Automatic annotation (TrEMBL):
Region (Disordered): 1-25
PROSITE patterns registered for this protein in UniProt: MFS
Residues in Major facilitator superfamily (MFS) profile domain copies: 34-434
One Pfam family, short name: MFS_1
Annotated Polar residues bias: 1-10
Gene3D superfamilies linked to this entry: MFS general substrate transporter like domains
Subcellular location: Cell membrane
Protein name: MFS transporter
Length: 441
């Protein structure tokens, strides 16, 4: 056997089958990695808009006189639609293809961000930020990364999933301080245009380099055998709804959805939306507060990876209880840490809270798999929807609380108490595994 064939045989578990299956030469760099790179950049482009709302609460309030509750309502519509669109995003990609769905989603995000430059009424903010951008970002939620990973990779799925999960935090790290600087130096409109351009710039890369399935270019997925491209899926949306109705008849679903709703309330709805304006209320410059929020994104990647390692070794329910309890304690102390400048206790909070930010995802996924077997991915999509609904509620109520009380202290305390409730809810999720993987009552 020639040496080259021997090498190919030895590395077969990490590479597609030989070119003889379709008459094409195997590329030196597998196309899957190019698709993964485009996905990474696309998620970063979408993250540009997600970094904007929390930075614009004060500028919009100052210019238009809109209450923070009104502005928070637009953010809450965005988050709610993000969550409610996510369970159907995979079905849309199966039906119409990844390229079409993602390119359309990026265009919606760009349209919402760009149209807001000319808005004069709060209902327009709700339409542009809430409806358009909410539908767009929801279509690029976890389903996008999960679909790409599932179709293009057999080997290295865990690595690719971790990298694509980190893309959102990377986008936050890049765009939060950058947009904060633009707002301070040039106003909020150039920052909104910047996020629109960030989304539009990615569209050509998606259209030219992204492919829906390895078979489209005559390849096997990375590390797996060649398979023909399946026909467009029909009925996936109906199955998504059916799984929800079945899961909703079980107690664990409501406990998982409830804990994850509190997770969203105490992260995206609370910190991502209201941390910057709250710190600014205490005299901290917006650019400094935004940089602190960006640093949280760095540590949430570390915390999520470590949480995945812990989930393989310890009971998921107990991990969730610990995570929520520690998060609640940190939020109770946050009002005492607010100051015009960055002090060591605030740095400790940023690191500690960042490690806990999305550490809840691996154990929540593990519990979904344990409880719902083959339907676990769809069930997690609905649990993720509850996460965003919880975020939406607090994004709105946090703004209302600021209008009523003149500060955010009550919001931090209430969120800390909610996290304590989530810790107790996690502990009462029963350990059930049906041998057939079906929904258990």
């Amino acid at each position: 056997m020639p040496v080259t064939e021997t090498i190919e045989s030895a590395t077969q578990d990490h590479r597609p089958p030989s070119s003889s299956s379709d008459g094409r030469r195997r590329p030196r760099i597998h196309r899957a990695w190019i698709v993964a790179a485009v996905t990474f950049v696309t998620i970063i482009g979408g993250a540009a808009f997600n970094s904007l709302p929390g930075l614009l609460i004060n500028p919009l309030h100052d210019e238009f006189g809109w209450s923070r509750g009104e502005i928070g309502l637009a953010v809450s519509i965005n988050m709610a639609l993000y969550g409610l669109t996510a369970p159907f995003a995979a079905a849309l990609m199966d039906r119409f293809g990844i390229r079409r769905v993602v390119a359309s989603a990026l265009t919606l995000v760009a349209a919402g961000a760009l149209a807001s430059v000319w808005m004069t009424a709060s209902w327009q903010l709700m339409l542009y930020w809430g409806l358009l951008a909410g539908l767009g970002t929801g279509s690029m939620a976890m389903a996008f990364a999960a679909t790409v990973t599932h179709r293009w990779f057999v080997a290295r799925r865990g690595l690719v999933t971790g990298l694509l999960t980190a893309a959102g935090a990377s986008g936050q790290l890049v765009f939060l301080p950058f947009c904060a600087w633009i707002i301070e130096e040039h106003g909020w409109r150039p920052a909104s245009v910047t996020t629109a351009l960030a989304a539009l710039v990615v569209v050509p890369f998606v259209w030219l380099l992204m492919r829906d399935h390895p078979a489209d270019v005559g390849l096997a997925p990375y590390g797996g055998p060649y398979t023909a491209k399946p026909a467009p899926a029909r009925g996936a949306a109906r199955r998504t709804v059916r799984v929800l109705l079945d899961a909703a008849r079980t107690g664990p679903f409501w406990l998982l959805a409830g804990t994850f709703a509190i997770c969203g309330a105490s992260t995206n709805g609370l910190i991502r939306t209201h941390f910057v304006p709250s710190a600014h209320d205490h005299g901290m410059p917006i650019t400094v507060a935004a940089s602190l929020l960006a640093v949280i994104g760095v540590f949430d990647v570390i915390g999520t990876v470590f949480s995945g390692w812990l989930t393989d070794r310890f009971e998921a329910r107990r991990l969730l209880a610990v995570y929520y309890a520690l998060r609640g304690v940190s939020l109770l102390f946050l009002p005492l840490l607010m100051a015009p400048d960055v002090r060591p206790p605030m740095i400790f909070f940023i690191v500690f809270y960042g490690l806990d930010w999305v550490a809840t995802v691996p154990p929540t996924l593990a519990l979904c798999r344990e409880q719902y077997g083959e339907d676990s991915a769809i069930v997690f999509g609905w649990v993720l929807a509850s996460h965003q609904v919880g975020a939406a509620v607090v994004a709105f109520l946090g703004g209302v609380a600021r209008d009523v009380f003149g500060g955010y202290d009550v919001v931090w305390y209430a969120s800390g108490a909610l996290c304590a409730v989530a810790a107790l809810m996690a502990l009462v999720i029963r350990r059930t595994r049906r041998p057939d993987g079906a929904v258990s009552g």
